[in-house]
Design brief:
Length: 727
């Protein structure tokens, strides 16, 4: 069993990682160890002696406790006000108006499997896949009971965390901050890796040493955001893509978040992850409970690559759910970059006819099919078919597409409302707003108040009406602006700090209702491209539009960055037109295909305008992707290189028999010699190149590498090399 508890010591052991903690004589829960798995043993606090305090400046424990001071001890869930001057994981105000909390051990329980978190997305596990420990801590004066929930996976190097706060006292308690995950480490050996970006340039990896004092990766945008992703890694200074220690932390949430690190004077590290406290408060009346979202901790001793592969496996098997989890996704064509708002049924059918001829499986009708939406100035909220564009309605379009052998997908942006819409004219209160302050538009739209049940009900009614009016197999769920003037007409002034989180609970509830009503539906997440690419959305949407930047060369970095935490199958990637609409770059059709085949594959251009040669290329790509899809979905992914002169990546099928290696030259130099060294193969096994027939040993491919020179790759050229293990 992965969880052992004896003599006040808790040992958690996943496949590959261990976490140890102990209750002190005075009832404090101190952290002893997190890292590579340790053999089961009789560890005690004495084996992990805490750093002594500096007596002249640090308050000491009021009673003898095996630790000198909470100011230097490693804590499992640090609180404010007792002499631990590092950032605290929780802040709450009780009747006396102070923020001091003294959480002491109360009881614990251990049970098989993993509990759900009410109303929130989370990883899941069967009873024989994981075990859960709940430790209850209590602050006597307020009666606040804080339960730390740890789930340890048997087959993944993963421990998940969440927290429950229950008001067991007689008076209301106001939570001002409540993190999902706190981790103290005794020594600073780490670089912080995180993913920053902006619209159309999401998830660029950045690696920087931790500094004394604090660092913060966060979003206050009401979305996990383009600018910072709710993921970080702490990696040993020496660690590389394949060697050394890397610990990854992902937040299963799609709204505002905060990940904070602190290095204290003794070089001890604290990492905290949770809801962003900037615009958060939550009143807990006696008898009420608050549940935090989940934080996921992954441990790897095989560098960043090992960490990513562990995330990919966990998310692919224990987060994504529903019928599409284990199925190849349809190869689609989306009409956005083909037509923007300028389409009608005939135009869509003409694209559909070309798609069907070329073997593409689904047509997705993007923005512009509803209300009077000929540009982005109006109609969000008016989810009624525009009969000027689709005179015979959705059913007619869907029937005609299905007759051609195509599935049909449709775009929604449910959470938004245009000031110029019938919905806004009828319900101005349904937008997030603050009375007495003008609302700031963005892309001519406001955000609906998803914390309201009537708003959720309206959206469910409109969406289910549309989805049952015709055969629609897929929904692209968009979200194109960030929050401002966050206020809800239904909550009193002292509860306005709850709006952002209640919004997320409302969004998740609507997503769940839609999926329950339409269980076969494939949802694709989207937020102005990849502005909400997070583990929270993946629980509902097994694929997410990676970026509005469809330029294949830009996508090299965006997709590799995304792969730090998220499986390739979750990244929607399309071949788009040239010159590229975002960058103006011209890239060979073949390269665009190779890059898009690194994720869930499709097209985003006017297929009717392709040359015969391009059409033949599409047919080849479609046939090839059918072969690759299971490998991409289940295989082990390796980032091989990403430099201005070469980007390369590789997937090895789960059974190790198939290898797909792709390389693109973003910018050719006259001397352009590259050997791509593969990974994850068997040294002694032989692998046959499926194009040339050449046979290589695994050792040769991994140590000498494949010489790319004979491929004569010129500027922006790419090559995909497929190998099969010779039995
Ligand atoms: C966002 C999406 C695009 C497209 C447009 C439609 O920007 O990311 O793919 O759907 O909205 O308005």
């Amino acid at each position: 069993m992965p969880i052992f508890a004896y003599d006040n010591l808790f040992q958690l052991r996943s496949s590959g990682s261990s976490l140890l903690m102990q209750v002190t004589p005075a009832g404090r829960l101190v952290h002893l160890y997190y890292g590579h798995s340790l053999p089961e043993g009789d560890y005690t606090l004495a084996d992990f002696p805490p750093t002594p305090s500096q007596p002249s400046i640090s308050p000491n424990s009021p009673e003898p406790d095996g630790i000198d001071s909470v100011g230097t001890a490693l804590s499992e869930y640090p609180t404010f006000g007792l002499g631990d001057f590092r950032p605290s994981a929780i802040q709450a105000v009780g009747e006396d108006g102070t923020r001091v909390l003294d959480l002491r051990y109360h009881c614990h329980k251990i049970y098989p499997g993993k509990p759900r978190i009410p109303g929130l997305p989370a990883t899941y596990a069967a009873d024989d896949e994981a075990e859960t420990l709940e430790i209850e801590l209590m602050d006597d004066p307020t009666g606040l009971i804080v339960t730390l929930v740890y789930t340890v996976f048997e087959n993944h190097p993963v421990i998940t965390r969440s927290v429950k706060a229950f008001n067991g006292g007689q008076k209301p308690i106001k939570l001002l901050r409540i993190d999902s995950l706190a981790l103290d480490l005794p020594e600073n050996r780490y670089d912080l890796v995180h993913l920053w970006g902006c619209w159309a340039m999401e998830r660029t990896p950045e690696r920087t040493p931790l500094i004394h004092g604090g660092m913060k990766i966060s979003s206050t945008r009401g979305a996990s955001s383009h600018t910072h992703n709710p993921f970080v890694a702490l990696v040993d200074h020496e660690a590389t893509e394949e060697y050394g220690e890397a610990m990854g932390f992902a937040f299963v949430y799609s709204g505002s978040f905060q990940i904070q690190t602190e290095v204290d004077f003794a070089g001890q590290v604290r990492l905290l992850m949770g809801l962003n406290p900037d615009n958060f408060s939550w009143t807990l009346n006696p008898g009420e409970q608050f549940n935090t979202p989940e934080g996921v901790m992954v441990y790897s001793d095989q560098g960043l690559g090992g960490m990513s592969r562990a995330f990919h496996k966990l998310f692919s098997h224990n987060l994504i759910r529903g019928p599409w989890r284990d199925k190849d996704r349809p190869i689609l064509v989306n009409n956005w970059e083909a037509t923007y708002f300028n389409f009608n049924e005939e135009k869509l059918l003409s694209i559909g006819r070309s798609a069907a001829e070329l073997g593409i499986e689904m047509l997705v009708m993007d923005d512009g099919w509803f209300g009077k939406r000929d540009d982005d100035h109006s109609s969000l909220g008016d989810w009624f078919v525009d009969h000027h564009k689709l005179p015979e309605g959705l059913k007619s379009l869907s029937d005609k597409l299905h007759e051609m052998g195509l599935k049909m997908g449709i775009w929604f942006e449910p959470e938004m409302i245009s000031p110029d819409s019938d919905l806004y004219r009828a319900h101005p209160d349904w937008a997030l707003h603050i009375p007495g302050r003008p609302n700031s538009p963005s892309r001519w739209q406001y955000v609906l108040d998803m914390s309201r049940q009537d708003v959720q009900d309206y959206l469910f009614e409109r969406m289910s009406d549309i989805l049952s009016s015709a055969k629609i197999e897929y929904v692209k769920w968009d979200f194109n602006r960030n929050f401002s003037e966050v206020g809800s007409a239904l909550l009193p002034p002292d509860r306005q700090g709850e709006v952002e989180h209640r919004y997320m609970l409302g969004l998740y509830s609507l997503l769940e209702r839609i999926l329950t009503a339409f269980p076969e539906l494939l949802l694709e997440g989207c937020a102005g491209g990849g502005g909400r690419f997070d583990a929270g959305m993946l629980y509902y949407a097994p694929q997410i539009w990676t970026s509005d930047d469809t330029d294949a060369i830009e996508r090299l970095t965006i997709q590799q960055g995304t792969s730090y935490c998220y499986p390739p199958s979750t990244m929607s990637a399309h071949v788009s037109a040239c010159p590229n609409h975002q960058t103006g770059r011209v890239t060979p059709f073949k390269t665009r295909g190779i890059v898009a085949m690194g994720g869930s594959f499709g097209y985003e251009l006017d297929l009717t305008k392709l040359s015969d040669e391009e059409k033949e290329e599409v047919k080849r790509q479609v046939a090839l992707y059918h072969e690759l899809a299971p490998v991409i979905r289940n295989g082990d992914y390796y980032r091989l290189e990403n430099s201005p002169t070469l980007a390369a990546w590789e997937t090895v099928s789960a059974d190790g028999t198939e290898v797909v290696a792709s390389a693109v030259v973003p910018m050719a130099r006259i001397v352009n010699t590259h050997f791509v060294r593969l990974r994850g193969l068997e040294e002694e096994a032989s692998y046959r190149d499926m194009d040339s027939g050449k046979v290589y040993s695994g050792g040769m491919l991994m140590h000498a590498g494949i010489n790319l020179t004979p491929y004569r790759l010129r500027d922006r050229d790419g090559v995909m090399i497929r190998l099969k293990k010779v039995e």
